[in-house]
Structures are given as C-alpha cells and as structure tokens.
Amino acid sequence: MYFASLRYTSPTFVASMVNTIASLTFIIAVVLRMETLDIRNTRGMAKVVGTVVSLAGVMIMTLYKGPVVKNMWGALIHIHGNDTIHEDWLKGSILTIGSCITWSIWYIMQAITLKKYPAQLSLTTWMSFLGGAQSAVFTACIQHKPSAWRIGFNIDFWSTIYGGVVVSGLIIFIQLWCTEQRGPVFVTMFNPLSTILVAFLAYFVLGEILYTGSILGGIIVIIGLYVVLWGKEGDPKYEVNSQEDSSLNNEEQMETKIQVISSVGK
After folding, report:
1. Which residues contact 203 (CB under 8 A, 6 or more apart)?
2. Is the pTM of the predicted complex or chain greater than 0.85?
3. N-terminal to C-terminal alpha carbon distance within the chain
4. 226 and 63 in contact (C-beta within 8 Å)?
5. Radius of gyration in angstroms for the set of CA atoms belonging to the chain, rounded to a whole number
6. 178 Cβ partners below 8 Å, 6+ apart?
7. Which residues cross the membrane (predicted)?
8. With a cut of 50, which residues of the chain have pLDDT below it?
C-alpha cells in the first residue's frame, strides 16, 4: 500500500502522512493500555502536546514552502527516471491511510510479540522471510510479466540490497530492541526525523530544491519530539521488563516458601 500510494500521489504527501504513525501508535497504545497517559500530570500533558507539535511541524513542511534556499554547489548524484506517475488522489489517499494504520498496528504487534518471544534476531528473520514470501505470491498474482522480476546491475540492484540488508535486517532488529526496552510509542516518535533527513539529503546529494518552510517545520518537529521524550522520561520501565521482574519476584517468593515448608517439615 505504501509503494502503491507513491504512484497515485506525491512523495511529499506520503512522507508527511507517514509521520502520523507516531500519533496513531500513541492512540492505539493508550486504548490498549500499553502506554500510560495522565493528563493531570505535567509529563502526561507533555506527551500530548509534543505529539501535536510534531504533527504540526510535519504539516508545515508539507503545506508551507517559503523562499528557496540557494544551493551553492551542484548535485553529487544524478538520477534520471522515465517512469510516469498516475495521479489519483482519492485512491492514493486511501492507500496511504491504510498503510499508516497497518504500520502502527505492526509496531503494537511487535511489542506484544516480544513479551512472549523475546528474541529479536530470530523474530526479524521470521518477519523478513514471511514478508518476502507474501510479496512474492502477491507479485506473482498481480505482475505476470517477467520484467517485474528482472533486476539489472544498477540503482535497482543496490536499492534492493540496501532494503534487504539495512532496512529489513539491521533497522528492524534495532527497532525490536528499542521496542522491548521503551515501548512502541518511543520508537515511532523518531519517524518524523526521516522527513527532515530526506529533505536535507535530497538538497545536498541530489541537488533538489530546499525551502525555508522545510527548515522551519524540521525545527518544530525536533522540538515536539524532545517534548514527548521528556514526558516519557517520567514513565516507569516498560511493561515487558516489569512483568519479567514481577515473575522473577514471584519465583523467588515461591522458592522461599518451599524452603520454609521443607525446613518446618524437617
């Protein structure tokens, strides 16, 4: 749904909508009682305010352009493409919203799965394997042309290698580790930084136009991000570890009771 929405809308629209994943994950986590939210507390209010501020910064980056920042040098990498984009904003918006919702649910499912299966490496392997198998079946049903499976030794090849090794391997493993330590909301709050990094890398590497609205929105996103992180700093240790600690305490209590009973029997 994410890649299909890029064909029907614009990358700027998709990049801005993807940053709503943090807000959606926060709402779902609160509903499922995986995230503590006390509006009467200052830190609890900071979570809500920071989320809204980050979302406002992303919208500023998308809707407000402002003056153009002059590029003092040319592009380091030149990419020439001949693919045409078929605009269909209604279909593209539905696909983007569906992608964001399922993406948020995916983060929640990671946190739930790690409670019973705390093995990040093997979980990453299973997700990548099943995702690849699912994509292969879906592509075989939709794309009947052999050209859909043909990859030349060009940017397509290197992007596939990067997507498999870094995105589907290293990044998911790091996300799983962070989710186990701090929860899914903590991980998704860093998603708005991707929009900032894309804008600046496109400016310095690809030579694309950078507007002052992107810089202003990026600053607001960072402010909102740190407000949320300050609010989460007052939270207790994540539920996964607390449940493990409580189970260990219960086991210690049971061992103590067994020792007392056995000593009394003797």
Report:
1. 69, 71, 209, 210
2. no
3. 68
4. no
5. 23
6. 186, 187
7. 12-32, 44-64, 89-109, 121-140, 160-178, 185-203, 209-229
8. 82-84, 239-248, 256, 260
Give the dihedral sign, CA 235/239/244/248: positive
For residue 5, with 0-12 CB atoms within 10 Å meaning exposed, 13-18 middle and 19 or more buried, which class applies? Answer: buried
Tally of domains within the chain: 1
Q: Does 138 fall in a domain? A: no
| Residues contacting 1, CB < 8 A, separation 6+ | 95, 96, 98, 99, 102
Residue 196, domain member (yes or no) = yes
Domain for residue 249, yes or no?
no
CA 198 and chain centroid, separation: 15
Beta bridge mates, 159: none
pLDDT at 105: 92
Distances (CA, A) of 122 to 105, 114, 118, 216: 20, 11, 9, 41
The pLDDT score that the predictor gives to residue 69 is 75
- Tell whether 262 is covered by a domain: no
Residue 63 sits in which domain range?
2-109+187-235
Name the CA dihedral angle for 138, 141, 143, 144, rounded to a multiple of 10 degrees. Answer: 150
pLDDT given for residue 102 in this prediction: 92
